Structure formats: C-alpha cells, structure tokens
C-alpha cells in the first residue's frame, strides 16, 4: 500500500486540464529541517475525476496551505528525478487568502466601543465559588 501524506504551500496557481477526464495539477512546497539545514521539497500533484471537476480549483492558488494524501511516485525529465503525487484527498488547511480577508474586513462594520467600566479582576469571582481551584496561584503540574 502506497499512501503518502504531507502538508505544504502551493507554489503557484493550479492548472486545470480538460480532456477525457478532468485534471487539476499543482506544485506543493514542503518545508523540512530547520536552521542551516532547512530545505523545501517540491512535489508535483495531480487530482483527477470528480474532485477535479469541482470548484476546488478556485481555492488552489499560490500560497494556499493544503494537506494532501495520495500515491507517491517519481518521474524523470532531462536527467532529473521529480516527486509526484496522485492525490486521493486534499484539505485546505490555511485560512483565507490575505486579499480576501482584507476585502471582508472592509465590508464589516467597525467594532463597538467598550464601556468605560473595566471588568473586575478574575480572582474576585473565584473566591465565591465553593469548588474553586485551591492551586490557582501555583501554576505547576501535579503528578
């Protein structure tokens, strides 16, 4: 059984192909390592069939974070070996694109002002609760 799962960001907008079967292809960059040893591994992904026919391609844009699961493979081109993935499932992991969230923020009304009264300290209410945590001041782990 060949199942490969990874999370990364799209390097550019997806490409949609039409033929006998609908196809969406995209490249995902996966970061690995840290510090001086950090590197990005690029995986060429293809999505086929009904999933490719859906509106998913509208959301597969440069920078979008995705979680992908599928069948890992390789292909050779001009003496280089490339990783490929035939996608079984894909999930949009990251939030909305920054442009979309800025547009949405412009449409939302301004936040309401808080009243001039400040909230009482948290401990003021805890003393009245009979089952309050007796260790609330000591933030240590009890084993």
From TrEMBL:
One of its GO terms (molecular function) is DNA binding. This is Single-stranded DNA-binding protein. PROSITE patterns: SSB. CDD domains: SSB_OBF (cd04496). Residues 102-120 have a biased composition (Low complexity). InterPro entries: NA-bd_OB-fold (IPR012340), Primosome_PriB/ssb (IPR000424), ssDNA-bd (IPR011344). Coiled coil: none annotated. Residues 96-131 are annotated as: Disordered. Keywords: DNA-binding.
């Amino acid at each position: 059984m060949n199942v490969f799962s990874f999370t990364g960001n799209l390097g550019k907008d997806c490409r949609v192909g039409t033929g006998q079967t609908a196809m969406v292809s995209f490249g995902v960059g996966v970061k690995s390592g840290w510090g001086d040893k950090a590197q990005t591994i690029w995986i060429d992904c293809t999505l086929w069939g009904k999933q490719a026919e859906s509106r998913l391609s509208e959301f597969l844009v440069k920078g979008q974070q995705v979680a992908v699961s599928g069948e890992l493979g390789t292909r050779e081109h001009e003496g280089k070996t490339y990783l490929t993935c035939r996608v079984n499932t894909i999930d949009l992991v990251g939030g909305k694109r920054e442009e979309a969230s800025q547009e949405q923020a412009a449409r939302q009304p301004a936040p309401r002002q808080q009243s001039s009264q400040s909230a009482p300290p948290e401990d003021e209410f805890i003393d009245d609760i009979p089952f309050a945590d007796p260790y609330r001041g000591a933030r240590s782990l009890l084993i």
